Amino acid sequence: MIDFSLTEAQLDLQKRARQFAKDVVAPAAAEHDRTGEFPFEIAKQAWKEGFLNSHIPKEYGGHERGSLETCIIAEEISAACSGIGIALDANSLAQGPVLIAGNDDQKRRYLQTMTEKPMFASYAVTEPDAGSDVSRLSTTAKKIDDDTYVINGLKWWITGGGVASWYFVLARTENGPSGFIVDADSPGIIRGPKEDNLGQHASNTVRVAFEDVHVPAKNLLWKEGDGFKIAMKTFDYSRPLVAAAAVGVARAALQHATAYARRRKCFNKKIIKYQGVSFKLVDMAMHVETARLITWKSAWLYDNGLPNTKESAMAKAYAADYCMKATVDAVQIMGGYGYSMEVPMEKLMRDAKIFQIYEGTSEIQRTIIVASLMRGR
Ligand SMILES: Cc1cc2nc3c(=O)[nH]c(=O)nc-3n(C[C@H](O)[C@H](O)[C@H](O)COP(=O)(O)OP(=O)(O)OC[C@H]3O[C@@H](n4cnc5c(N)ncnc54)[C@H](O)[C@@H]3O)c2cc1C
User: Is the shortest distance between the CB of 125 and ligand 1 below 6 Å?
Assistant: First the structure.
């Protein structure tokens, strides 16, 4: 049986997230976009509402929301501002490796604490020479005695890196890439200034340098050599979430452009009456609906313990690519007005671009999908 309906609880969550987005996120979006300030106050309110770090299991004090539920929240918040949305959701990417590979002690020390107050963590994998090709990573973790590793290296483009309390760090050990939890206040960690990016200004992206950073051996996730597997497995959970955020932005673009096309007149007709305009809106509507379907399916597979690597790659690539196209088309429909910084349309277009780059570019998602096709899946 296929059932496309949300449960009562999911509908209620969607309604609450939509209201929160309308009352709290949307009014602050333009200001955070202008100043680039991190949304600490909004995060505090999101935490109170159960929208921040909400997928952490009940055993560790969390709400234990499933992937589908977090996608529902992400779409609503990102429809109001994806910069703020990603500032909140980047935590999930850092927490993923601990959820997947952490032992009870690690989960208590690093996940439970995040349910007790609003806190942030970052996923620190990318380096200047290792982006899509993570195998080129050069950060090292050297074991100097039974209890200690020493980490050296430079991580680049780390979302939330300037506000994080801890990092998931992928570093090379004697037995291959390994995953570590590293306290952000460890001596030897140097955080760079916030990067000046095209969009999603509320999100804090920095470089993080590790200079002889001593890390307790008890912070190694699983065992040496398993880091790459853990880092990649995390994407099965986080890609649906990013895809949902992209659906939110595309939906917002569609809503703004439709409202405008219904009132703007050219040559004595509302522009929505011209097929050149209305067909763009129709395509946007079809892609939003399709992107949401594959996103929710990939989340549902994850929640049911089924393989979703291919579907989450499809969701991420599809939602990101059509989010970009939708925002460009929406600016076009709004003409000169769409290009003006007075209205949020140009912000949606700037914010959309990053969805095709982080958490694996759209090209890398396609390499994942083709690998799955080649295996006959
Ligand atoms: C705002 C922002 C936030 C980020 N947040 C984080 C974070 O929190 N943590 C983290 O670890 N990283 C983060 N990243 C890094 C991000 O994941 C990388 O930028 C991304 O994986 C691409 O790597 P790269 O920039 O080195 O590009 P490259 O890997 O150098 O790629 C350059 C181009 O080549 C293409 N390409 C590469 N290989 C192939 C191939 N095999 N086939 C086809 N095309 C290919 C790519 O698709 C891309 O178009 C962030 C990046 C940005 C910009």
Answer: yes
